[in-house]
Amino acid sequence: MADTMQRPGLSIDTDLPRQGETRAKPNVAPSGFLERASKMLSAHLNAAADDDDKKDGSPTSELTSPTWGNTIIKEPFQDMDMLENGHAREYLAEECLSPTQSKSWTYSTVERTNKNQYKMYWNNDQFLLSAKQVGGTFYISQYENFPESGEADEPTGHYCAVLRKATDHNFKLYSCGCEGCDQSFSTYTCSNINEDAAATAVEGADRQLLADISHFTKAAGVVGSEMRCFSVVIPAIMDDKRSRVVWCPRVSRGVTTSGGTPRGTPSCQLMTSPSPRNKNQHIFTFDTPTSDRIKIGSKLPVWCPEVNSLMLKFHGGRIREASAKNFMLMLDEEPVGAQLSAVPDPTGNNRVVMQFGKFSKSKFALDFRFPLAPIQAFAIGLSSCAWNVKPLAT
């Protein structure tokens, strides 16, 4: 009999001794067929027994991933089964999805490797995220290299988030998973697979919404001077500094505008990702109605007569070249759970949460802090790179 290593739900058949037996007895039918058939039958019966156990009320906590922040129920060896069936998905890690733990700055670099691919690195050159632009869409992955495909071809499922151009002046960042309702093997998922391409662009069929990014121009300084501005909306962060409001299109379908973002009516209860203090807590309750979003806008430059130009004072000296893509973002108001500073801040410098600017020919400095997460900061920077300024009609 073949050497077999077994554990529940998995068997590995080396098939080595049987090959020798087959050569020695060429006229005898190989025993591997019956052996494999018995294993398949045994696996089927074990699976049925497991289902019966679940119906008897056995706890399902053993099947849940022990990592907080992930509500996806995983069966044993589910990832391998999904690979075999062509249903593999890439889910965002907490490192990319959670905001920084303090208000200290996080330094990173975005490198444009070719005309449609970008990579994000920590300040120590450690890789974090990559993105591939196909038309008006950026496919974001936690793998450094996308599978081989044409420059104009979208990746085949190997990405964890999508930055989609919803309109000429608006981008939306969607996760490929959902912390609100995702289950194993696409069961009870919020993905709107039956919607057509036009509906997908406006109704958020790409699952959980992580950021809504709008572009506009605004007069600044002297007459005739314009700057490119941002209006960014992200889900609110709770007072534990980690739990975030979940914008799930299935849950918020009734309060979703045509643009795909929930209207944001203040509520006393907000559905969030699991709390690090209590993995089973998905609802935060407040005494008064609380907003489900954080609003972030552009910090306007100041006209400098010495150089006859608009100027922004970037910190750290990391932004070294002038570019229309350089910008700073600041909080419109303090988020939920934030500690208000007792020191007056008329310039708004204490509320600056992100700066993005040209470092060299193909590199950009991307610095951010709480409440932005790495994936959100990366998406905002990518939308700036895709901002094409059209000349005024004459």
From TrEMBL:
Taxonomic superkingdom: Eukaryota
Biased composition (Low complexity): 256-267
Tubby C-terminal domain mapped to chain residues: 98-384
Bias kind Polar residues: ranges: 58-70
Comp. bias regions, Basic and acidic residues: 15-24
Region (Disordered) residue spans: 1-31, 48-71, 256-275
Family recorded in the similarity comment: Belongs to the TUB family.
Record's protein name: Tubby C-terminal domain-containing protein
